Amino acid sequence: MGLDMIRKAFRNAAAAAAGAAAATAHAAYDVDILPPASPIAQQIYDLHWAIMWVCIVIFVVVFGAMFYSIFKHRKSLGAKAAHFHENTTVEVIWTVIPFVILIGMAYPATKTVLDMKDASNPDLTIKVTAYQWAWEYAYLQDGVKFHSRLSTPRAQIEEWEKQGEKKGPDYLLEVDNAMVVPVGKKVRLLVTSNDVIHGWYVPQLGINQYGIPGFVKDTWFKADKPGVYRGQCSQICGKEHGYMPIVVVAKAPAEYDAWVKEQKAAAPQAAAPAQVAASAPAVSENPNRKWTADELKALGEKVYAANCVACHQATGKGMPPAFPALDGSKIVNGPKAAQLALVLGGKQGTAMASFARLSDSELAGVITYTRNSWGNKTGESIQPADVKAARK
After folding, report:
1. What residues contact 105, with CB distance under 8 A and at least 6 apart?
2. What is the rounded CA–CA span in Å between residue 195 and residue 173?
3. pLDDT digits (tens, 9 = 90+) for 31-41
4. Model pTM greater than 0.90?
5. In terms of Cα–Cα distance, which of 194, 150, 180 is closest to 168?
6. In this structure, how many other beta carbons lie within 10 angstroms of the beta carbon of residue 150?
7. 321: cis peptide before it, omega within 30°?
8. Best CA proximity match to 148, nearest among 168, 174, 177, 126
9. Distance CA 392, CA 387 (A)
10. 114-156, pLDDT tens digit by residue?
């Protein structure tokens, strides 16, 4: 009860301070952290302001006493320093008081950390796999799985001034497929990585969990109210680190159930199952279907734009030596099997990661596109059945 009262007092003080700041010049979020939207985030927010006020009080007391002593006992007033070696009472006081302050801050902080780690008894479990540079979300109970990537147009990122395209309100914080969760339900996340260390960070939900290759870390959150909550990868995971946003959409339970049904209904027919781009054409994922070269190139162009253009550039010229050119590449213009093996398995010691997470149709399309674009004129295409066979 005592801790709750302290938290409530600090929360009220924080709200008053934020309201005063907003009334004077700026909105509260200009001087404050984002408003919490989950129980853990609320605890973090309360700790933030509680420790802030403790630091302010200590600052005022210590520096106030120091400046007062300097002013009242300056040499010009004839003050003379006292000569003494030790004072047991003073030493006990300046040891006990900091100890009590530290314990007072450590107790609620420790409780919050323990609450953050308690992912037991979830209502929903989602496996989060990080890639350079995308997130894969697999809903273990509901059977929904998709990728989420940055949807900010490249024109805004690279040449928006030249092309006259203004930056959107959610610049670099918008995705093609957001994680959707029900409000008021405990959502457990199993976080891992396919390549390097990433960080799944959404401040309003109170989560910053590392995704480490070969390990699965768990965390949880419970959205208090419907809304859109944005975050980013918190680890420097490579060249596109700044282009790896996270968007969580919290919906009412009934709306969430309707969303799950829509995802399941759309999954069998989707060509680039929700993970390529919102504008990707809907085509059959039947591996026995024979695609035309034009169909493969059309799909491949969209897959390339979503996955490859950042490193290899829209012109296929790359950025050597880290990102080699695909235009005129010996791999791209060589045997199809060699290029397929590279795309599926990646290459150790280089920035080339595995793209085995993409569907058979996506891989067939992007390989066909690269072999018949820019200065590459192989005239060859690869079918989804070829990709499926190569996975075995």
Report:
1. 50, 51, 54
2. 22
3. 678 889 999 99
4. no
5. 150
6. 23
7. yes
8. 177
9. 9
10. 999 898 899 999 999 999 889 999 998 888 989 898 988 877 7
